[in-house]
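User: Please predict the structure of the protein below. I'd like the answer in structure-token form so I can feed it into my own downstream comparison script.

Assistant: Understood. Taking the following sequence of 331 residues as input:
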Amino acid sequence: PKDVGKLKSECAAEAVQAMNPDLRGKIITLRDRVGQDTEHIFNEHFWEELDGVTNALDNVDARTYVDRRCVFFRKPLLDSGTLGTKGNTQVVIPNKTESYSSSQDPPEQSFPMCTLRSFPNRIEHTIAWAKDLFHSYFVGPPEVVNMYLTQPNYLGSALKQSGNEKQTLETLRDFLVTEKPTTFDDCVAWGRYQFEKQYNNAIQQLLYNFPKDSTTSSGVPFWSGPKRAPDPLKFDPTNPTHYTFVLAAANLHAFNYNINPKGIPRDHILKVLDDMIVPDFKPDPGVKIQADEKEPDPNAQPASFDDNAELQKISSSLPAPKSLAGFKLEP
């Protein structure tokens, strides 16, 4: 953290001299970016003086530029980089190896949303789904709430431009009014409802839309090939996976609201779960589910007059930001 905002060349020089004091006073740091506009600084004389080059660059254009110069002046290059949790290094030796620009990373893999939500068939799909769910529970809503509380006229200006007004207003209503927890018990109950929503209700709805014995228009079983028919889960607090899901959800939700979950025994959490009344779910005939990414998303409808009246109703149910002075969520 102490280096944030400083030049990389200066931080690197300081770090190297701390590791090897014999280098003190022997490192020259330059403050100019390397590129075509600085070839009067990084000129032929500069490149010919070098024994080798190592890159600590943050973009591909700069890397390919340095690579071209190293190929031209026949200098060895050590390139390294990170992307999220992945790291890579590449050693380039003149006349021996390919150069940095000779190969490219394959494009990042992404999956259609309908596959993640309704038809996962590989472990990568479930990981991508879980990451998306984590964001939509514990990151996105607290950020939206904080913007509502701090940006003047957020509902009138920023929200109108966001394009997903209904979803944002519903999030604000859920997180500030209808589902706002005051104790850790409330967070446990919230986690239990999320379990029901994701692993029972959503699966029941999916099987209502596409029963296990349904066929496509060409007479082929719908649940075939990579599509695997799911089964709804019945919550069982003695199942460690079920219990841990609720406990993790409760802890994270409590963190969002700065509620301290420390020291609450398992017996107490089990009692909260036991005392809860979880409403029975009935599939909704009006719900449409996208079965193929090539089809238009049936839930992306333009707003109607009725929607506007509903949005107005949600807006007026929200507490005024002034009434929540000093309150904020922790994404």
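That's the full token string. The mean pLDDT is 90.
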